[in-house]
Specification:
Mean pLDDT of chain B: 89
Shape of chain B: globular
Largest sheet of chain A: 6 strands, mixed
CATH topology of the largest domain in chain A: Rossmann fold
Strand content of chain A: 25-35%
Low-confidence stretches of chain B: none
Low-confidence stretches of chain A: 334-341
Strand order of the largest sheet of chain A: 6-7-8-3-9-10
Number of strands of chain B: 0
CATH topology of chain B: MetI-like fold
Shape of chain A: globular
Radius of gyration of chain A: 24 Å
Number of helices of chain B: 14
Number of domains of chain B: 1
Mean pLDDT of chain A: 90
Distance between the termini of chain A: 27 Å
Order of helices and strands of chain A: EEEHEEEHHHEHEHEEHHEHEEEEEEEE
Largest interface: A-B, 22 and 17 residues
Radius of gyration of chain B: 23 Å
CATH superfamily of chain B: MetI-like
Helix content of chain B: over 70%
Number of domains of chain A: 2
CATH class of chain B: Mainly Alpha
Helix content of chain A: 25-40%
Largest sheet of chain B: none
CATH architecture of the largest domain in chain A: 3-Layer(aba) Sandwich
CATH architecture of chain B: Orthogonal Bundle
Number of strands of chain A: 19
Oligomer: heterodimer
Structural class of chain A: alpha+beta
CATH class of the largest domain in chain A: Alpha Beta
């Protein structure tokens, strides 16, 4: 186990600064998720930790050791790739044990470690198969097994679930979280899927244009977003942003309101609007409304709501739960903090 | 109906000539018409062929050539493909330069190499003289010990870009992730080649091996341009022997027997290669 620390790290490709300057500490034993839109630098960060990308300047420390210029295999890390990157001509057992073989470990030791990893990941019956004979989920487990046997200080995951179907993805989310609880190693996980970030992380790092927008627990980021970017990025469906008199009255340029903090009524309410579209999701309904004065609004209501497209409705904004922002930052001590983080 | 043009073409340019060759191999057919009609001679042509020491010499030369040129040419093409697949400066320029030999007709290549091999003062002998003294030179094409090797060298140079392009495509098909995973696993450069590149090129290698072997077994132009099969039959190949018998000696029936026999040999080799490689895959 080890903490990972970026000290004034810069990364540029030619004249393009992908990461202008980064200072970040990822705590020892944490499950940290790097999240952000495409091109925000999250994969580059992961690859710099792995040693697959060099840093343009600055220091990178793993477990207190400066590994900035160390070979990838000497950093005490293991990585699970989005494509799994399994060697197609090797069996599952050979794939898992390949790094140990290269490290010159004795055969019985390799077999023991492979067998232990296979036990953890329920791969015992698949050890003689080739990757092409496995399902997506099984391949993912092999890739994780390959990481586990190296007993790394830090596990790196590069969007490992993005090639799986929805059901398998939620199953693997649980399995990965349980794996983290069991082995307790530092895990750094890159994704653009905020559901993965919210459900798996004990620390989320939100990145935007190579900068860290905010670091915190999923609850902190959801309840106390420091910037409109974080507010808009965390939470599904996206937070509503309202400008104008409502915001100004709260000393802000813009206020954010989660879709679940807006009430919907057929006959009375503060704001009048017209139904643009609705989506029934089973336990809840998403309603898209074009509201007078405040613009397009998304509302999340429990249960099923049967309103026709184009029908007039009324909205109640729960402004006690609004997130006020001024010049791109949260207005201190204003707005609501539900359940306070 | 849509298949008709293809069937007609195939019949005209492949099946019919091959069927005629089989028929001629059992006759005393001559190249030019003669007063005596063509006769069926049974297996006489085959018997004469097996009794001719020059035929066996040609067969042996052909195999020696194929055994030497195939691995040499494939190794050369893979090495160049790996260099041109790496992130080197002016890569596009070097890729273009590397395929120049492919653009030259074999007759031109042979003429260029004839100058290179010229004695006593061709470029290759200049190199020899630099190390061994000005009075020393090698009669590259005139000596039995170096003639076939000289043809191996020029043949590999002339045709390696074709295999190189196929290797280049094969290398680009290998996912970069695999190299990165191997690097993280601690694989050094050679181990990445051994465990990622080489297995990743397996199907390409099977194709290359079969195609290059068959191409090598058809050796003719270089021999005819440079040595005419000499000295003392040191560079005679089956195809060159066939050409001499069929066109210079006008014995088309006999040359057809050589062609039919050689066809069976080449088919057998290709089949053996395929079966062996398939068994390895299953192993």
């Amino acid at each position: 186990m080890a903490a990972v620390e970026f000290r004034n790290v810069r990364k540029s490709f030619g004249s393009v600064d992908v990461i202008p300057e980064l200072n970040l500490t990822i705590k020892d034993g944490s499950f940290t998720v790097l999240v952000g839109p495409s091109g925000c630098g999250k994969s580059t960060m992961l690859r710099m930790i792995a040693g697959l990308e060099t840093t343009s300047s600055g220091l990178l420390l793993i477990g207190g050791d400066d590994v900035t210029h160390r070979n990838p295999s000497d950093r005490g890390i293991a990585m699970v790739f989005q494509s799994y990157a399994l060697y197609p001509h090797m069996t599952v057992a050979d794939n898992i044990g390949f790094g140990l073989k290269l490290a010159g470990l004795p055969k019985p030791e390799i077999q023991k470690r492979v067998s232990d990893a296979a036990g953890i990941l329920q791969l015992e019956k698949l050890l003689d198969r080739k990757p092409r004979q496995l399902s997506g989920g099984q391949r993912q487990r092999v890739a994780i097994g390959r990481a586990i046997v190296r007993q790394p200080k830090v596990f790196l995951f590069d969007e490992p679930l993005s090639n799986l179907d929805a059901a398998l993805r939620s199953q693997m989310r649980v399995e990965l979280t349980e794996l983290h609880d069991r082995i307790g190693a530092t895990m750094i996980y890159v994704t653009h899927d905020q559901v993965e970030a919210m459900t798996m992380a004990d620390q989320i790092v939100v990145l935007n244009g190579g900068h860290v927008e905010q670091t915190g627990t999923p609850a902190e980021l959801y309840r106390q977003p420091k910037t409109p970017f974080v507010a808009g990025f965390i939470g599904s469906p996206r937070m509503n942003f309202i400008q104008g008199a409502i915001a100004t009255a709260r000393g802000a340029d813009v206020i954010g309101l989660r879709p679940e903090d807006i009430g919907l009524s057929g006959d009375n309410g503060q704001w009048k609007g017209r139904i643009r579209h609705s989506e029934f999701l089973g336990s809840e309904t998403l309603v898209y409304v074009d509201a007078e004065e405040i613009g397009p609004i998304t509302i999340k209501s429990p249960g099923e709501i049967t309103i026709a497209q184009g029908e007039t409705v009324f909205l109640d904004l729960n402004l006690a739960k609004a997130h006020p922002f001024k010049t791109g930052h949260r207005v201190p001590a204003a707005g609501n903090v539900r359940g306070s983080a | 109906m849509m298949l008709l043009p293809a069937v007609v073409l195939l019949l005209t340019i492949v099946i019919l000539p091959f069927a005629l060759s089989i028929y001629f191999s059992f006759t005393d057919q001559r190249l030019t018409p003669r007063p005596i009609p063509t006769r069926i001679v049974g297996l006489t042509n085959f018997a004469r062929m097996f009794a001719d020491p020059l035929f066996w010499k040609a067969l042996a030369n052909t195999f020696v050539f194929a055994i030497l040129v195939t691995p040499f040419q494939l190794a050369l093409s893979l090495a160049v493909a790996m260099i041109l697949n790496a992130a080197i400066p002016f890569r596009a320029f070097f890729r273009t330069v590397a395929i120049i030999p492919l653009l030259l007709p074999m007759t031109v290549v042979a003429a260029i190499w004839a100058v290179m091999y010229r004695i006593p003062n061709g470029p290759l002998n200049s190199v020899v003289q630099m190390f061994a003294g000005s009075s020393v030179y090698v009669d590259w094409l005139g000596s039995s010990s170096t003639a076939l090797l000289s043809i191996v060298l020029l043949s590999a140079w002339a045709t390696f870009p074709y295999q190189m392009l196929i290797y280049l495509a094969g290398l680009q098909e290998i996912p970069q992730d695999l190299y990165e995973a191997a690097t993280l696993d601690g694989a050094k450069r050679w181990q990445r080649f051994r465990y990622v590149t080489w297995p990743g090129l397996r199907n390409v290698n099977i194709f290359q091996l079969i195609i290059t072997t068959i191409g090598a077994l058809k050796l003719f132009t270089q021999v005819d341009m440079l040595t005419k099969g000499g000295p003392n039959g040191a560079t005679t190949t089956v195809i060159h022997y066939m050409y001499q018998q069929g066109f210079l000696s006008q014995k088309v029936g006999y040359a057809s027997a050589v062609a039919v026999f050689f066809f069976l040999v080449v088919c057998t080799i290709a089949l053996i290669q395929r079966v062996v490689l398939r068994n390895e895959e299953g192993a």
